[in-house]
Specification:
about 55% helix; six-stranded parallel beta sheet; Hypothetical protein af1432; about 375 residues; Rossmann fold; alpha/beta
Amino acid sequence: MESVILFGGAFDPVHNGHLRMAGAASFLLNADVIFIPSKSPRWKNPSVGIDHRLKMLALAIRQNGLSGTTISDYEIRSEAEVNYTIDTVRYFVNKYPKKQFYLLIGADQVNQFHQWREPEEIVKLLTVVYIPRPDIKINEGNVTKYKIMSLPYNHTGEVSSTKIRNLQSVDTPSAVLDYIEKNRLYYIEKIAGMLDKERFEHSLSVAHLARSIAYKNERNDYPKAYIAGLLHDLGKGYDTAQTIAIMKRQYKDYVNQPEFSYHQFVGSYLAEKEFGIKDEEILDAIRFHATGKPHMSPLGKIIYCADKIDPLRGFNSRPLIKKCYQNYYLGFVVVLSANREYLLANGKDINNPLTDACMQLYLGKGKDIEFR
């Protein structure tokens, strides 16, 4: 008998955790998977419309290459105000009476399963399965009562649609990230609303370049590079009065830095306040991306470079980008040297404490290193 897994959800948006769950369940149960995006989920209000969610799901499945996987529009076409799982299960069981069905649910839903509509009827028609999560203690009473099956897989990752929407994670296929950018969904809509058009486009470009530099250097923090790049210039969207107020309140130790540097501190503050970013490496990379500082982290060096050699800056930065692709550290030293040369040639003051200490450490007091 052929087996089929029903996997419903808002998929707002779909992420790699969903895809890993589906792939693992398909392998362990030797079953095909039907994704069933919900038009109006009972437990939550989707952030974007079903058309966007459906397109992102299709892009994710195509990029991931999940075999034996289809998307059903059953709940989308339904005229019901709320789609209940029991109705969906009955539809598929009646339509394909010769197939064995499973229902894949999240570990959190195991604990709420007794609150679903007609849970006893659901488990008469199919077997409910779930994948454990280390952060969720399972209601064993529900597992026993409804004969819910746990699947032996523990690599879904600490990702959620909420984290994707808030830019606290980008653990979703690149095709989905591209779609979010193109259609200005979730965090992109928010960032675009905080910056002018030119600064927003610069931030997107820096995010792409930073991610590429990290990825080509075989670094695992390339998702962080993308996040930091997107958020690095948030402080540019604030006027002088707002900026100074935040500096005096949050960054008293850096108020004596030149005003051009204030936006990096305000940007770090906004990344945490507006987007909930808690990763100190990301916040630190944003906090010193304009001035640099001594002993920068690898991510800090990458964001510094991506900002300075962004292709949208209007000069031929291809040789510098190539250098960073080959080796981010050596590329950083070259970019730092080139930036010092540019600033001095244009009469800019580089004697602020942060920039001076950064250049002293990485470049020394001698001549600029030769760029080949």
